[in-house]
Fold this sequence. Notes:
The chain is mainly beta. The chain has one domain: Mitochondrial biogenesis AIM24 (Double-stranded beta-helix), CATH 3.60.160. 13% of the residues lie in helices and 41% in strands. The protein has helices at residues 38-46, 86-99, 159-163, 226-232, and strands spanning 13-19, 22-27, 52-57, 63-65, 70-74, 77-80, 107-110, 113-116, 122-127, 134-137, 142-146, 150-155, 170-175, 179-184, 192-203, 208-211, 216-221, 236-248. The strands form 3 sheets. Strands 10, 12, 13, 15, 16, 17 and 18 form a 7-stranded antiparallel β-sheet that branches. It has a 6-stranded antiparallel β-sheet with strand order 6-7-4-11-14-9, with no helix packed on it. It has a 5-stranded antiparallel β-sheet with strand order 1-2-3-8-5, with no helix packed on it. It is globular, with a radius of gyration of 20 Å.
Amino acid sequence: MYQVKNFFENDDVDIIAQLGAFRVIQWKRDLSVNSWNAQSAWFSAQMNVHRRQVVCDLAKSAVTVQAGAMQWTVGDVSATTGVKGVGDFFGKALRGAVTKESAIKPEYEGSGMLVLEPTYKHILLVDVGQWGGSIVLDDGLFLACESTIRHEVVMRSNLSSAVAGGEGLFNLSLVGNGVACLESPVPREELIQINLRDDEVKIDGNMALAWSPSLNFTVERSGKSLIGSAASGEGLVNVYRGTGSVLMSPTVYSTAFAPAMTNQ
C-alpha cells in the first residue's frame, strides 16, 4: 500500500489529458529556479512552455516506453526488456536501426504507478483503434504505449519518397488496440487532421506527424510539368493518396530543434 502526496493535488499541477492507462500532467510554473533563469522561466510559462509528464496506471494496462523515459515508480511494478527470444531481439534491433528508435523498449507491468521523465514537448494521447488499428509515426514521436500494441516497420513505397521528401526510408507503425503517447512539437490545438476517401493531400515540407498506413506516400512535382512546378515556386511536394487520415502540423517542424527538457 502506498500514498503519494503533493503530486496530483499540488496547486501547481494540472491534469490536462487522460486516456486508457495514461494521464498527462502539466506544471504551471517552473518554481525550482534561481536568479539566473527566473526571467526565462516566467516568460516560458506565459508562452505555453511548460514541463509535462506522463503518469501510467499499470493496474489498467502494462505499458511499453521509449528507453530511458522512466523517472520513478511506486508500488508493485516490474520491468522487462520485452524480448521474447533471440529472434525477437534481432528483429527489434533491426527495427530500431532503420526507424531511429531505441532498439529495446522496456515494458512495465504490475499494479503500481510509473511516472515518465518531464519534457517540454506536447503530449498527444492517441487511440490507435480509432485509426483503424494502425498508425504510422514520423521519426522521434513515440514515447509510450499500452503493451497490447505491436511495433512494426513500414517502408516507403519507393526510394524517391524518402530521398526527395526529406524523410527516412522506414517508419515506426503502431498496430493493435490501445492508447499511445506521442511527443509532438506543436500542441494538439494546432494540429490539423485530414480524412481522405479516395482522394489526396499534397504537403510542401515536413508537416505530417502521423498517417494511416493505407495511404500511398509519394513525392511528386507540384505542377504537371517542370515549367509548371517552377512557376508555382513549390517544386516537389509530399503526396498522401488513398483512403485514410493524415495528422499535420500547421508549420514545417523538426524534432531535432524541439525544446529539450532541462532539470532545474
